[in-house]
Each structure stands twice: as C-alpha cells, then as structure tokens.
Design brief:
Ornithine aminotransferase; Aspartate Aminotransferase, domain 1; four-stranded mixed beta sheet; pyridoxal phosphate; 2 domains; identical protein binding; seven-stranded mixed beta sheet; alpha/beta; globular; Aspartate Aminotransferase, domain 2; 15 strands
Length: 403
C-alpha cells in the first residue's frame, strides 16, 4: 500500500494527537529506515532515544525470539527466571541497590512520585497529605494526568484538569531557586539532567553537583529522570556521571529495550524502594520474562559494542561540524553526546518544521520541538562517514533556505 493511502487511513481512523512527518516507514536497520516505497532515510531521532542501539539490533532481536518461544508473561503473581538476572545485571551496571521494573517511562515517573511521597511520610515524617515534590519549568516527564499537572506547557494541560496537587515549579538550572523552594514538606526534587523535549536545554556546569549537595543537606530525595538522557545518549551510561553525582532515585526506559519492547525501571536503594509492601504497587506486565530478556540483551550490546564511548566521540564530531554552519537563521547550536539541538531565530521561514521537511526530502529524518528547534539524536552506532554524509544534506538545506 502506498504512502498516500496509508496516511489517508491514519487520518480517517486515528486520533490526531500527533503531527508526524508524512513518511510511512516499514523497515529499519542500524541508523537507517525505509519507507513503503523503498526510499532510505537516516534516522536522526532514534524514536526519542528508544533505539540507541540502532534499529532491529540482531542480538536483541535474537533474545526476543528465543524468550518468546519459551515464556512471555507470568504476571508478578509468580516468579520467572529472567527478572532476578535483570535485577542483578542492571544494579551492578548502574551501581544501584534496588530496581523496580515497569513498562513505559510515564509509569516509571508515576512510580517514583508514589515512592517519594511514601518515603516522605514514613521516613522523613512529613504530615499525611502534605508531601510536596519540586519540579522544573519546561519539564517533560510523560503524559499522565498527574505528570501534565506539573507541566508548564499550556498545550499539554489545556482542558485536562483538575490536576493532582503537591508540586512546586522552579526554573531549570537554578540551584538557588531549588534551595529557596524547599520547605519542611518537600520530599523530592524531580529533574531531567538535560531537558530533551524542551529543546536539549543543558544546565550550567556544576548544577547537578550543587543539587546533590542541597538535597543531601535538606534531607530531600534527588530524582533524575534519565529516561531520555540515560543509557549512553549523552556519552556516559547515565548523564549524572558527567558531574560525578548519584541520585537517590534514577529513572530509565526507552533504550532499556533497544526499541523492541516497552521496558522502564526505577533505580534506587533499600531506604526508598524497601518501603513498598506487597499490594501497594505493581503492573501486570512489569518485569515480565520477555521484557527482562530483551532488556538484558539491550544492556549487554550497549556495553560490549562500545556504543557509549562512540556516542561521546561521534557526538563531539557532529556538534563540531554543525557549529561550522554560518547561517543567519541559526541562533544557537548546543549538545552533549548524541543529543544535539539547532535553535533557529524566530523569523526563520517555515520554522524548524520546514527544515525537517526539507531534510526528509534529502534522506534525513529529524523532528522539530517548540517551533524553532531541530533535534539531532541518531542511534549511538553512527559513524564518522555517516555524519559526513548527513552534513552534506544539512548544509544543502540551509543553503537553499538562504536562497
């Protein structure tokens, strides 16, 4: 079936809660994807960093097939032989003491909100119903009702209220604002090490280290949402490593399965996760053997195939090449690892969407965010020749824009 026919069906029968580029993909391998007409594109979004290991990685695929032939789901009413191994391997890799498995990133965030509040009441002594969690403006932590309630994106919130109380919003990257906002009822500070959906907003150097100091001094849980930044995207296993800190709770997802299956996790310690008792939290699919086998393989290839170091090296090279673009439309180019943004001036014809559409015509798929910013986040297996080819297309698009 052709692109136009499939788009017509999608528009007719699907809810219009996304505005995708008009390309219909049917196949992927490594950094490349193909549409239904057989045209090839370089994927520079990586499913919002869910396919860090590249599309359809053969070793992750084999783990999926092998496990699917044996056992896929038991629920947590019974034990399975894959979950304990994922617990051990993930905790050892991330230097965590405990892990709680979920499915989507948003579920992991909802889980950590519950855990932080429970810790506040049972360990810190906050009065029941008064727990407060500090978050940042321009955050993105998911799409559930509680999460959008503390979003500052009007489009995400409009006509979805009333919202869950118990959140205080402060500016991102401002440690003094965090310190000033903490009260005796504050149980946690939830923050992204780098704000991805906001347009790859990188905080000032030393910010996370100062946050760690404040949270320790004030007896407040430091929660890092590494669902997008984690598992190699920034050139480290976890973005917190850039400043040598460790959060009390860390959230990972997306690339935890290499794009094969929804898997997420809350990483923490006995002091927090040990407070959960049977029946107080769970998920039918969370920790299922298929998910665990896939996640184990995804983590293994990430480390064994040197993808994290490659992300650091190729990210630096890509950023260097992009910064050589001298164009009046470009306001700023910023990035860390293979998490890169090109921000345009607000008078640029067509905005970021127009450039993404032009890049699509030249075989590169990327996505705009907030009208004026283009994100480049290819799989971590990208090579220097791949980047050189991509830069040719990017330069041509900007040259045509100038014309």
């Amino acid at each position: 079936m052709k692109t136009t026919e499939l788009i017509k069906k999608e528009n007719q029968f699907g809810a219009k809660n996304y505005k995708p580029l008009d390309v219909v993909l049917s196949k992927g391998s490594g950094i490349w994807v193909w549409d239904v007409e057989g045209n090839r594109y370089m994927d520079c979004l990586s499913a919002y960093s869910a396919v860090n290991q590249g599309h359809c990685h053969p070793k992750i695929y084999q783990a999926l097939v092998d496990q699917a032939q044996k056992l896929t789901l038991t629920s947590r009413a019974f034990r399975n032989d894959q979950l304990p191994l994922l617990y051990e391997e993930l905790c050892q890799l991330t230097d965590s003491h405990k892990m709680l498995p979920m499915n989507s990133g948003a579920e992991a965030v909802e889980t950590v909100i519950k855990c932080a509040r429970k810790w506040g009441y049972e360990s810190k002594g906050v009065a029941r119903g008064r727990a407060d969690i500090i978050v940042c403006s321009d955050n993105f932590h998911g799409r559930t009702l509680s999460i959008i309630g503390f979003s500052t994106d009007d489009n995400a919130r409009q006509n979805f209220g009333p919202f869950t109380p118990g959140f205080t919003v402060i500016p991102f990257g401002d440690a003094d604002a965090l310190e000033a906002a903490i009260t005796p009822n504050t149980v946690a500070f939830l923050v992204e090490p780098v704000q991805g959906e906001a347009g790859v907003i990188i905080p000032p150097k030393g910010y996370l280290k100062r946050v760690r100091e404040i949270c320790t001094q004030k007896n407040v849980l430091m929660i890092l949402d590494e669902i997008q930044t984690g598992l190699g995207r920034t050139g480290k296993l976890l973005a917190e490593e850039h400043e040598g800190v460790q959060a009390d709770l860390t959230l990972i997802g997306k690339a935890l399965s290499g794009g094969f299956y929804p898997v997420s996790a809350v990483l923490s310690n006995e002091a927090v996760l040990g407070l959960l008792q049977p029946g107080q939290h769970g998920s039918t699919f969370g920790g299922n053997p298929l998910a665990c086998a896939v996640a184990r393989a995804a983590l293994k290839v990430l480390v064994e195939e040197n993808m994290i170091d490659n992300a650091a090296a190729m990210g630096a090279y890509f950023l260097e090449q992009l910064r050589q673009i001298q164009h009046p439309a470009v306001k700023e180019i910023r990035g860390i690892g293979l998490m890169i943004a090109v921000e345009l001036h607000e008078n640029t014809p067509g905005g970021a969407r127009g450039i993404c559409e032009a890049l699509q015509e030249k075989g590169i798929l990327c996505k705009e965010t907030h009208t004026w910013t283009i994100r480049f986040a290819p799989p971590l297996v990208i090579t220097k020749p791949d980047i050189d080819w991509a830069m040719e297309q990017i330069r041509e698009v900007f040259a045509e824009l100038e014309g």
